[in-house]
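Contributing new records

If you add data, match the layout below exactly. Sequence lines come first and carry their own label; structure lines follow with theirs. Keep one chain per record. Anything else will be rejected by the validation script.
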Amino acid sequence: MEMKLWKDKRERDMYDNFAELYAIIRATEKLEKAYIRDVIVPSDYEVECQKLITQYRTLASTLKDIVPSIERFADTYNLDCPAAINRLVVSGVPATVEHRAESLSPSANSAAAVAECVQNFITAMDSLKLNMVAVDQVHPLLTELSASISKLSILPPDFEGKPKMKDWLARLSRMGAADELTEQQSRQLHFDLESSYNSFMAALPSSGT
């Protein structure tokens, strides 16, 4: 006789999301250990870690009312994954990004400022994937991102992200708070964010330099 853990579709979806969250935490812990033991090349680690961080942030946003504390979730399900909790919750960026940021001279910029910028890029892109396209949802995210970009002196003068964010902020300022981006506008904004993010990551020093 099959035993069901759920009463209806909503409860089933909740348990499915719990299972996904559990899997993301376990996968991140294994990835962090593989990176520490030098059994994965940094470039592959960074791609996979960024993917897991993005998946976690998207799922955490969905579960925020049910799972207010990831640490408590980990305790409840006996997840001893301190490295994963640190990477997903505390840091929010791959270790390789942290290391490149820390290699900057103090006069250039702090690792915290670089990490903040990375997180703002990811948050803005994730919000569009979640269909948060109202002006009063998008504008604050781009304002925060633009401010964090402006703090960084390591970026080249022709860094594409600055004019693109300035242009989008000006465009949004001409719209009403309740107005929403069209599908075409949302896709273009996501493309501009992704392109700017890639240029930002390329501007950081390579690991070991």
